[in-house]
Amino acid sequence: TIFIFILSLVGVFYPYNRGALFTALVVIYALTSGIAGYTATSTYLQLEGTNW
User: Fold this and answer.
1) Distance between CA 44 and CA 10 in Å, rounded?
2) CA–CA separation, 25 vs 13, rounded Å?
3) pLDDT tens, 14-50?
4) What is the number of other CB atoms lying within 10 angstroms of the CB of residue 12?
5) Angle at 2 between CA 43 and CA 39, to 5 degrees
6) What pTM value is reported for the model?
7) Phi, psi (5° rounding) for residue 9?
8) Measured between alpha carbons, how far is 9 from 22 in angstroms, rounded to an integer?
9) Are 39 and 46 in contact (CB under 8 A)?
10) What is the rounded distance in angstroms from the CA atom of residue 23 to the CA atom of residue 29?
11) Cα-to-chain-centroid distance, residue 49
12) How many Å apart are CA 45 and CA 50, to the nearest integer?
């Protein structure tokens, strides 16, 4: 969310396009949740986790 806030301060999102900020938030959340899931799974397997 900090990244999106910085982008809005720089002027990437314009006031007349109200949905752009929310769309960017949803897209960034979707991308980072996939990365977080991969990282969590990788760490779990490296620690020899057995209970899925």
Assistant:
1) 39
2) 12
3) 656 777 778 888 888 999 999 999 999 999 999 988 8
4) 12
5) 10
6) 0.57
7) -70, -35
8) 15
9) no
10) 10
11) 26
12) 8
